[in-house]
Amino acid sequence: MARDIWRHLWLLQGECMQFRRLLPLAALLFVPFAFAQSTSCPELPASTGLTWDRVDGAGFTFCKAIRDTDGQQAFAVMLRPDAQFRTRRSHREGDRVLIDGHEVFWYRGDVQNGMVRETLIELDRNSTAHIVVRADSEPELSEAQRAAQGLRFRDARLGSN
User: Rounded to 5, what percent of the chain is helix, strand, coil?
Assistant: First the structure.
């Protein structure tokens, strides 16, 4: 009888050890969910006539600024811990601009049709915002860039430091 009790305790201890080893892996499954819950799109300037179309993914939030007038995308913001976009000095366009207190440059994107401008903002130690503006004309590009430069990232920080 005592032998059976010890055997069950031994098996139970083994199961607990396996559970302890798997616990960190199980915690990783909840990271994208927690990330998506803690990230919101930046504040749009009130006078732009834009609204957000938001998509949450594993480790990122993608925000598309949609024009109320025609339903087309004016620009997009990718919020994620690490930036996939790499700036190239040779693609720099214009002077330094200020977006929510961050000094940045716009960079020319490589596309065949239309015009693209991109910039990157380091919001926190583990949080970046990659802004992409696509337009068919110079006036449309300028209008979208002005709207993007009016963004406020108060609630768009990724996670907590």
Answer: 35, 35, 30
